[in-house]
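We include this case.
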Amino acid sequence: MVRLPHARRRALHVRRLLPSGRRRARRRRSQRRRRDRRRPPAEPVVGLMPERETRFVVDASPAEVWTFVRDVHALCSCIPGVEKVTLLDERTADLTVKEKVGVVPLIVQLRARIDAEDPPHRLHAVATADHLTMEIDVGLKPDGPRTELLGLIRVKGEGPLRPVVNSLFDKRADERAAQFAEQLEQRFGAVGAEVVVETTPEEPVQEPGWLARVGAWLRRLRQRLQARSASPGK
């Protein structure tokens, strides 16, 4: 075997030919790879599920309201944003929900299912999608000839759409609850609703920007100079 001189120095020679910035970048990449091999795998972070509660008083008996709530197709058709309801059985339905995120519409396919009920007092349903889980609790309470309806909605985004889902729910939950109350009013004749609707605060009066202030100062300075030049004896 013939041993070539300086064979081991070739790699070192090539590295020396590289600019100093590229050598530092290669060194940082190798250090990061070594740290990543020593680092334990990251555990998934599970956040709290945002929730919103609404309360309505409708002019109907609990039995009549329960019939409406238990009808999956009728109930889902009154939910704002639901464009299509496909009934699979008496407890399950596929929903097409459309929400507008900026100028781009967000279309989500949900499968909703009633998994627990206590007629005519309580109902629990779960709707799931690829990046979304929604839990709905509905409670009915007699109020004389009327019925008090309590709704609790919990929404959790998952995966890459989690920030979008949580932000969208926080911004539009009260608005959607108010729209749902209007649907109930059209169907039963709502006599009262406790729904907190976010109102847009009045825009504060904006002060002139720095450019406008500089322009006003220059105009005042020019007026003073013109007045001084026009005055005799100045």
In short: Residues 51-73+114-194 form a domain with the Alpha-D-Glucose-1,6-Bisphosphate; Chain A, domain 4 fold (CATH 3.30.530.20). The CA atoms of residues 115 and 125 lie 6 Å apart.
